[in-house]
Amino acid sequence: MKLKSYAKILIFGSTTSLVLLATIAQAADPAGTWTWTTPGRNGGPDRVSTLTLKVSDSSLTGNLSVPGRDGTPVETPLTDGKVDGDIVNFNVIRQFNGNSNTNIYSGTVTNDEIIGSIQFNRNGETQTRKWDAKRSTAAN
Fold first, then answer.
1. Burial class of residue 105 in the structure, from the number of CB atoms within 10 Å of its CB (0-12 exposed, 13-18 middle, 19+ buried)
2. For the whole prediction, is pTM greater than 0.90?
């Protein structure tokens, strides 16, 4: 009788562990399309950013699309993208009027959300802004 009870506990524990591991692996997958909204400059309309991510081993690639000054989307490729468990890191380098500006993104992926920070330089000072992206459910 005791042996059957131990066997049931072992099977239940093993099954639960496998389900939990599968859920964790799925929850931390950053591949896909993500969007977030930031307030417009000087009271202008909100700006929707769209991030498309692809994962290969621990490498992260993709593009970030944001509205330009005229509202037309500007797409910029990611550089130095990495995935480590549920942590993502990548850079976005923009060129404007002969100047280069690097934004350093980092975030934690949980289910259908990435919460993190963006580090950038403005007027010679390093600044940080939070970002909170949601996985897009729109058909690609």
1. buried
2. no
